[in-house]
């Protein structure tokens, strides 16, 4: 069953094309990661699917209805990128306030426990650290037992321990059949949580598959070598980084690249070939080939 859908959606802000004919479906029970560099269009897609903004053209649906209609959002939980909490209220009071809007909210203790917030229940939100505020803001999206949750960069600014606590909360919601769409710059986050990753770049969907398949799709290897002389043009190289004499080359065919280095009699040493991180893979997907 499809819970959220974008069909050939385009969104412009003045002259800026933020989304360019994007189609995207989310099925019930899925945990989907939207991955992309700054300005890729992730938040815009989330904002369209959650009814905060309207597409310039194309169609969006939430639970089969127009997300701009308030009743369509009744079973939705959202944590946008920026959130504000009433500074003078205690964490427990904020949870009570949000809970009062729902027929069957999660019990306060259970919610706070799930997100590792039990110790903060009596603290005023104005006195919380940035990371603690963020955890409260994310937890609030779960109060009404939504069928579906959108989390826009949920763990930005959190330390490792706080991030793991949030992941646990998201995982347990997902394990109970909840549907999650999250955007992230943290590749480990997508890999740790999501079964499916949608790579967005320049307002377009560049890949929509499992994390493993997306990595396989680009199959980028990082070939590092120490070399003093400038390198000739090498075919198949999609990215180059230099740190003094150390050069890192990104390529889809490391075997051929190494053969070429030998053929050109390049005096290199300390050769190292390793798989790329997902980040390097998606940069290779979004980047124009650059000359060596
Ligand atoms: N209200 C707006 N007015 C003008 N341009 C906007 C507006 N909102 C977004 N944009 C532009 O649209 C493009 C997509 O932005 P969006 O926030 O969707 O990207 P993102 O992938 O979420 O980025 P980030 O990871 O930095 O949050 C960017 O170029 C951005 O500057």
What would your notes on this structure say?
- It is a single chain.
- The chain is of the alpha/beta class.
- Helix 7 (211-218) crosses helix 9.
- It starts with a strand and ends in a 6-residue tail after the last helix.
- The chain is built from 9 helices and 13 strands.
- Helix content is 29%, strand content 30%.
- It is elongated and about 75 Å long.
- Bound molecules: adenosine-5'-triphosphate.
Total strand count, please? 13
Strand order of the largest sheet: 5-6-7-3-8-9
Poorly predicted runs are none
Helical amount: 25-40%
Which features does this protein show?
ATP-binding, ATP binding, 9 helices, ABC_transporter_ATP-binding, alpha/beta, 4-stranded antiparallel sheet, binds adenosine-5'-triphosphate, 292 residues, 29% helix, AAA+_ATPase, 6-stranded mixed sheet
Write the layout of secondary structure elements.
Layout: E1 2-13, E2 16-27, E3 31-35, H1 42-49, E4 57-62, E5 76-79, H2 91-99, H3 108-114, H4 130-140, E6 148-152, H5 160-175, E7 179-184, H6 187-193, E8 196-201, E9 204-210, H7 211-218, E10 221-226, E11 237-243, E12 246-251, H8 254-263, E13 269-275, H9 278-286
Parallel strand pairs: 3-7, 3-8, 5-6, 6-7
Antiparallel strand pairs: 1-2, 1-4, 8-9, 10-12, 10-13, 11-12
Helix pairs in contact: 7-9
Bound molecules: adenosine-5'-triphosphate (ATP).
Residues 13, 16, 18, 36, 38-44 line the site of adenosine-5'-triphosphate.
